Amino acid sequence: MTIQWIFIPFALFALSRVLLRLRDGTLSFGFFLFWIVIFSLAFVAVLSPDSTTKVANFLGIGRGVDVVLYASIFLLFYLVFRLYVMMEGVRHEVSELVRQIALKEFGRSQRRKSR
Amino acid sequence: MRQPTIVAIIPAYNESETVGGVIAAIKKENVVRHIVVVDDGSSDGTSKAANVFGAKVIRHPKNRGLGATLETGFQAARLFDPDAVVTIDADGQHDAQEMKKLVQPILDGRADVVIGSRTKSGEGMPILRRIAVFFGNVFTWMLFGMWSSDTQSGYRAFSKRALDVMRLRSQRMEVSSEIFQKIARYKLRFEEVPVRSIYTEYSLAKGQKLSNGVHVMWKLLLRAVE
User: Taking the model in full, what pTM does it have?
Assistant: First the structure.
């Protein structure tokens, strides 16, 4: 099938990026495992489409492709949430920096006044 | 007897029109020893106005929101080793004459946090504000199990103990509810005192709106899940 020819090189490329990010320390081991599991499942689904139908029957969803769609939507929601939490963390860090600059300047001005 | 050290924190963002009046009103009451204005990156000369009226001014080089501004104020207040800290809005909606009433439960050793409740007195609060505050109260109660008649009030007093544990993480308006999360978590003694609100066209245009509610709720949900 054409999809297999398109997906497999892409998934291999993505896996190599995951490995590289683990090696340079950008990705934690937990997230490395997370992406390995996700791409392994995608591999199985592309190479053996019948397996998704089996899962669909087990879950009572109907078609195998629907299982893949639902799982993708859940995954995307989760990743957007993680991204949002990360952004909040960055915002917090920026505020902390701004605060430290402001307090340092405040301390300086107080010392100048007390002289 | 030693006079208690009370610090007033005024978070301000583009409040040059009103901040001077608020500082003057606080000074007139002779309750607080230090008045600290935290200017959250204003572009209208708020810092200058606060300086002219004799307050100590801390200026954020960039705008970071109410929560971040309050936390800066708390950190600055700790430098003065206060017995109590009062927060008051810069838009002139609170009556400085009520400051003594607000800090008294702390000075008496009865409370760690005192909220100036605008809904308890019922004076001067427009209906839309009441609705916004009610939803804020319900949401805060659902998330943190704390009920207050005015969770969104900016007129509050904190004891030394409350100040020590109040390390705020919220950046913006959701800080009002985060304070209740801290009260519940650290089992702080909490009281409410009815206060009058002075609403003008100016303060109505600047304060917490019903439309901010969804954003605040989302942020609080995130905090609860985090």
Answer: 0.78
Distance CA A68, CA A80 (A): 18
CA nearest neighbour of B168 among B68, B58, B38, B65: B68
Contact A102 B60 (CB under 8 A): yes
Q: Measure B191 CA to nearest chain A CA, in Å.
A: 30
Residues on chain A touching B75 (C-beta within 8 angstroms): 99, 103
pLDDT digits (tens, 9 = 90+) for A67-115: 888 888 988 998 888 888 888 889 999 999 999 999 999 988 888 877 7
Which chain A residue has the Cα nearest residue B57? A106
What does chain B come to in residues? 226
Burial class (CB in 10 A: 0-12, 13-18, 19+), B81: exposed
* Partner-chain contact A110 B56, CB within 8 Å: yes
Place of tokens 């390995």: A36
Task: Record the tokens describing residue A87, joined without a space.
Answer: 């952004």
Structural domains of chain B, ranges and CATH numbers in brackets: 6-225 (3.90.550.10)
With residue A98 as reference, give the H or E element that holds it. helix A64-114
Query: Residue B109: enclosing H or E segment and its boundaries?
Result: none
Please answer whether residues B156 and B179 qualify as being in contact, where contact means their C-beta atoms are separated by less than 8 angstroms: yes
CA distance B99 to chain A (A): 25
Q: Tell whether A105 is within 8 A of chain B (Cβ).
A: yes
Whether residue A106 lies within 8 A of chain B, CB to CB, comes out as yes
Q: What region does A25 belong to: left with phi over 0, alpha with psi -120 to 50, or beta?
A: left
- Interior angle at CA B215, CA B212 and CA B217, nearest 5: 105
- The conformation of residue B75, written as its DSSP 8-state character, comes to H
Domain residue extents for chain A: 2-83
The DSSP 8-state label assigned to residue B30 in this structure reads T
Residue indicated by tokens 């838009």: B91
